[in-house]
Amino acid sequence: MERLPEPRPGPLTDRERQALAQLAAHESAADPAFAERMGARPRRRGGRVPWLVAAALAVIGVALLLVPGPWVLAGVATLVIVVVPVALIAWALGQGDRPPM
Fold first, then answer.
1. 9-32 pLDDT, tens per residue?
2. Cα–Cα nearest to 37, from 99, 96, 100
3. pLDDT score at 81
4. Higher-pLDDT residue of 63, 51
5. Which has the closest alpha carbon to 78: 56, 96, 45?
6. Which of 16, 41, 49, 80 could disulfide-pair with 12, CB 3.0 to 4.6 Å?
7. Burial of 71 from C-beta contacts in 10 A (0-12 / 13-18 / 19+)
């Protein structure tokens, strides 16, 4: 089997730069979201998290006032053991590339 030649180190030639520019122009025209899918940082979807934190604190505050102590402790334990890790995993998956399926 014939081996391919090793690429030479160093900057690109004019022909290579021109080919890359043509490829980038074609991809930008054909698919504007191409750069995002190829590793650009995703746009932030902020604004939702502070409301979720405020709602969770309000629910815990009302529960402390109305529900007997052991039930509050059980609810907080469930929140810490189940809900928070699942929310963190979902957040982490939303931050970067999806794992290959």
1. 778 888 988 998 898 888 778 877
2. 96
3. 92
4. 51
5. 56
6. 16
7. exposed
Amino acid at 24: A
Cβ count within 10 A of residue 23: 10
What's the mean pLDDT in 34-56?
Answer: 70
Rg of the chain on CA atoms, in Å: 26
Determine the residue type at 19.
A
Residues 32, 40: contact at Cβ < 8 Å? no
SS3 content of the chain, % helix, strand, coil (to 5): 65, 0, 35
pTM for the model stands at: 0.33
Q: Which of 61, 92, 86 is nearest to 76 (CA)?
A: 61
- Distance (Å, rounded) from C-alpha 93 to C-alpha 81? 19
Average pLDDT (58-70) is 82
Give CA–CA dist 96/88, Å, rounded.
13
